[in-house]
């Protein structure tokens, strides 16, 4: 007899379809939005006049979803990024509001272009980083939209990781990593003038993040942990190097800084605690934040404002409701709902994400989230430890399609921000250095043991699942502790850190020293941290998925572990998606993988499942 308290199974098509609308951007004059939405099954660029139902597609690619779009400052064109088959060699395209043939502003082969500065005050030009001169180095190129061309603006001397332009669209700040591993901030006073050292930051303090220049271009805003444990927002006086702390938190890093588009002043700063918490640093943002709290109980993010700064778009996120976008009038302090990203999910019951803490075996406090299936007694549940990628990233509260899918199928979902995760200060981050298969792995195991000890998890029905570093963590967990998990799912996870480090993308070369400090710098050590060399110890069944064109974790990483597992007789199912890179962007591939994974988990954990779809062409 079915349990009436358990909500209906949510179709995978509802959970994993592209959002109906997403990534809204407000036009420079505030009269239109550009957004991403499906067209012919692929995310495409649409525009709409606010208050009207005149939605239309202006750019689409039948071969692959478009991941990013932004207005040109003239309000008559939209810019977007696209790569080829997941290779992450992005080109920047431009299209007018009537659609038509898009213009490739960064033509060439084997190039990677990323936007650096697109400022509404400069409607006919912009800045991108581009590795056209040297595949290893990201120079800055200046775009001339009218001429549909780009020219070299600022050359990378060989060690620059990040660039920043001032409010006059001049490249005047850079972060580089020098030979001893430390980071330096360099500045210059004008185009063509000499670069000079503004500050030097030890490796242990972490890479600084350049935020913006002050309205008068005399000061530089930076997020850094120098002279503090957590990353704080500071202001450097460019002429003297004098530093002033603008905002800090004793436990958590500064996560975001909102720069008011009209004034170029700092409006608000966000700390990601258990949830995202904003603090206003301007009068206008103080009033706006009060209004936001009355508007919706979820988290807010500032998305995009007009060139005048009189209106902006807000993204609201919650754990049991998909994201929403609002248009906010800063003068009237009023908001109107633009759209729900996934309105079909509003008809279903989602599972709440609960913040949790546990203690690692060496006493380090770990934070994370536990999502329990609705309508089921929270005791002795089949459980999935879902490990985030990066690994220099962190799990956060809010709607996650994978988490909701797993919980709806009857599984408890455990997420833990193991040491090496970001957001908790530099000591917590550095505790993960060269510990990929060490204490980072045992933190996950300690969270596993916590869930069992608290009574939530059934120790005989406990799976581990992750993507990228999370895929690697799946392999290491099964190789080092063969009896801890009954099965695992690895998506684009490296299996041998020697081959992984030897094949990083060329444009990662300037950050090789950072990778060596955090992962390891010699083959013997890297092999000691690699599950490939312990593959014979793996006994739990595995599902492995890989994109054939992945530039970060090459297909070889999955091929070699699958070969080793099959040779030792371990059950392994291997999915290769020929038109994917580092992850699954195509809907048909995501639906196929989710269907296979759902059946795999049902066999080993006993949860609910829909039949998997056939993959087109098979």
Automatic annotation (TrEMBL):
InterPro entries: 6-blade_b-propeller_TolB-like (IPR011042), AB_hydrolase_fold (IPR029058), Peptidase_S9_cat (IPR001375). SUPFAM superfamilies: alpha/beta-Hydrolases, DPP6 N-terminal domain-like. It holds the Pfam family Peptidase_S9. Keywords: Hydrolase. GO terms for biological process: proteolysis. Gene3D superfamilies: alpha/beta hydrolase, TolB, C-terminal domain. GO terms for molecular function: serine-type endopeptidase activity. Residues 397-606 form the Peptidase S9 prolyl oligopeptidase catalytic domain. It comes from the Bacteria. PANTHER family: DIPEPTIDYL PEPTIDASE FAMILY MEMBER 6, SERINE PEPTIDASE S9 FAMILY MEMBER. This is Peptidase S9 prolyl oligopeptidase. It comes from Granulicella tundricola (strain ATCC BAA-1859 / DSM 23138 / MP5ACTX9). The lineage of its organism: Bacteria, Pseudomonadati, Acidobacteriota, Terriglobia, Terriglobales.
